[in-house]
Amino acid sequence: MKKIDMHAHFFPRITQKEAAMLDAERAPWLATEADGESGHIMTGDTRFRPVYRALWDPALRIEEMDRHELDVQIVCATPVMFGYRYEAAATAAWAERMNDLALEHCSYRPARLKALAQVPLQNLELACREATRAKAAGHVGVQIGNHLGPRDLDDAHLVDFLVHCANDGIPVLVHPWDMMTDGRMKKWMLPWLVSMPAETQLGILSLILSGAFERIPETLKLCFAHGGGGFAFLLGRAENAWHCRDIVREDCPQPPSHYLKRFFVDSAVFDDHALRLLVEVMGADRVMLGSDYPFPLGEQEIGKLVAGNPWLGDDVRAQILAGNATRFFGLSS
């Protein structure tokens, strides 16, 4: 079956000098080892994350796609690249540069590599402008973080950006970043294991319970990464709360389950039972193959969870592996 991985990351080979144009102390750049096979994403002089060549080398990416029998992979920025904390004009120039580098990365095999753009989300006008420019340049959608500091997706500024994307036909992937923590989650990657799924669930419920979906055109193509975090498992809790507490439903005219038709999720849940629940809750037409490649917390054998599940019929398997992403991003079948 055809396979489209719609959630994979890249990071271009930018130098510390280039990053300093955004911020000399904290902007991200790539330090590679002498062998060229591995390196670190850096933030200023600090090591942020160990990485390997597939993150920046499209030739190796294609080799690994062939090994995983992937037909198409959609790449997006590693979230540390977003630049939301900086002055908007500087971030706009940074986003344009990163987006051009993403297209350069994909030009190695343009039929098999597609890109999502990043935008200076802290400024509505500049974000909308870059999203539209990137679409015209060849990006198949945009990726945004799930919040801007204390402002969640129900914030009017972020809702207006989603409205723009709906009106301009720009698909949106929401990725958690800058995870909530009060210092208790110090070890074992707990911010990634606990806060990251919670951030995604928070983004979904903020759109639902605030009534934001009532203000966003139904034409918006919206997807949440990592299987929607804890949303599918905890939907029943939100549903019960909506029916039992007026303060939960005061801004939301329909129960949470009514809004399942308004967004998609990827399949990066890593467990047979979790995938089955996700498909049962969201519907087979709302789940797309996503791996989080090439990071260690991603699916190591891309597509195996979906392709290897006997309880998924062939039609459903084909939908999740490629059919849904083809329609979502307007790709050629």
From TrEMBL:
Its EC number is 4.1.1.45. The keyword Transferase does not apply. It is an enzyme of class 4 (lyase). The keyword Cytoplasm does not apply. Residues 4-331 form the Amidohydrolase-related domain. Keywords: Decarboxylase, Lyase, Metal-binding, Zinc. GO terms for molecular function: aminocarboxymuconate-semialdehyde decarboxylase activity; hydrolase activity; metal ion binding. GO terms for cellular component: cytosol. GO terms for biological process: secondary metabolic process. Pathway: Secondary metabolite metabolism; quinolate metabolism. PANTHER family: 2-AMINO-3-CARBOXYLMUCONATE-6-SEMIALDEHYDE DECARBOXYLASE, 2-AMINO-3-CARBOXYMUCONATE-6-SEMIALDEHYDE DECARBOXYLASE. Monomer. It comes from the Bacteria. This is 2-amino-3-carboxymuconate-6-semialdehyde decarboxylase. Belongs to the metallo-dependent hydrolases superfamily. ACMSD family.
